[in-house]
Amino acid sequence: MDYTALGRRIKEERQKLNMTQERLAEEVNLSTSYIGQIERGERKLTLDSLINITNCLGVTVDYLLQESISQEQSSYRDLWTNLLSGATPREKEMVVNLTKLLLNYMDE
Fold first, then answer.
1. String of b and e for 60-70 (b: at least 16 CB within 10 Å)?
2. Which regions in the chain score pLDDT beneath 70?
């Protein structure tokens, strides 16, 4: 995982909101020095802290971690997103069920 890139994205999003490290730290119940270390890529964060930070900044976890996601995984995710973008909830459910059925058949 690229903690430097993660920290850089957190810092960029924080600054877009004109938020200080102190305010972010207060909002997510962490110390200011810990936020600084995260932003510099010096410290790893827990999943709980990452989720609290993303919620506070109004971004998604996958956005913050995009440098750590392999291109192959990202390409498949984009393909599925495009395929299902115009589908109704019922159609999406059908696609999921058919995919599960196909994968189960392939395992046999």
1. eeeebbeeeee
2. 69-74
